[in-house]
Design goal:
By secondary structure, the protein is an alpha+beta fold. The chain has helices at about 1-20, 30-65, 175-185, and strands at about 75-80, 85-90, 95-100, 100-105, 110-115, 120-125, 130-135, 140-145, 150-155, 170-175. It has three helices and ten strands, in the order H-H-E-E-E-E-E-E-E-E-E-E-H.
Length: about 190
């Protein structure tokens, strides 16, 4: 995305330099008018449409990876928001849950099934994915993936009462060995 924006910015700068370098007013000749149409239509529209198409294709490719689709490597976690905490249940460790700390494996896609016990909340981990609402009686699925082990801050980003600013949680991404140890610990 940055490359496309940079290319458009540089093209505009070059066109401005050419426009101010020539100076003077319109010459009025038909050849000049034809040349100006080529510049405007060829570069202005053609270049812009090419960059827009490339950015759209890239966005669709990246967005497709974020859609929750079944697969052999996908981990499923259930997140339930309530005033003022989150509880997380793990499909790979049935019957166990954690409060305000979501444990996930690093480098693997995780589908978070988001719901609410009371009012509408928003599940948001800015460094991992976009924001999705937790609605009572409804399950929304958000795919997240941490590239590296570590802690990622999560926020309940929906105004839903007096203490909504304290509605925070942590996503803890583990390497493969630590993830397996966490699962074994949870199953005991």
């Amino acid at each position: 995305m940055l490359a496309g924006a940079t290319a458009i910015f540089l093209l505009v700068l070059v066109l401005l330099l050419l426009a101010f370098r020539r100076g003077g007013g319109p010459s009025g000749s038909e050849a000049d008018a034809r040349r100006e149409r080529v510049w405007i239509q060829g570069l202005g529209l053609g270049f812009s449409l090419t960059v827009l198409a490339a950015l759209t294709a890239y966005g669709l490719y990246v967005g497709e990876r974020l859609l929750p689709r079944p697969g052999p490597d996908v981990v499923t976690v259930r997140a339930e928001g309530r005033q003022w905490a989150w509880s997380f249940g793990y499909a790979d460790a049935p019957g166990r849950s954690t409060e305000n700390i979501l444990h996930i494996p690093a480098g693997r896609p995780v589908d978070v099934e988001i719901t609410s016990a009371d009012v509408i909340h928003s599940f948001w981990v800015p460094r991992l994915a976009g924001k999705l609402d937790a609605i009572p009686g409804h399950v929304n699925v958000l795919r997240i993936e941490a590239d590296a082990p570590g802690d990622y801050a999560g926020v309940g980003a929906e105004f839903n009462g007096r203490d909504y600013t304290k509605h925070r949680f942590t996503v803890r991404a583990h390497d493969e060995a630590a993830w397996n140890a966490f699962l074994q610990e949870e199953m005991q």
